[in-house]
Design brief:
This protein is mainly α. The protein is built from 2 helices and no strands. It has helices spanning about 1-25, 30-49. It is elongated, with a radius of gyration of 12 Å.
Length: about 50
Amino acid sequence: MEAQKLKDKTQLMLMLQYSIERYQAMGNGIKCQELRSELNALRQSMEQK
């Protein structure tokens, strides 16, 4: 169960990183900041466990 949760969070992190790159390329800074915030929160939650 834990392995699946870790895999899901890793997949979400990769998706967020990809989305950040795409929004940056389009020049959408606001959406990029929102996604970076979400990514940082996810990283912090993974580090605490």
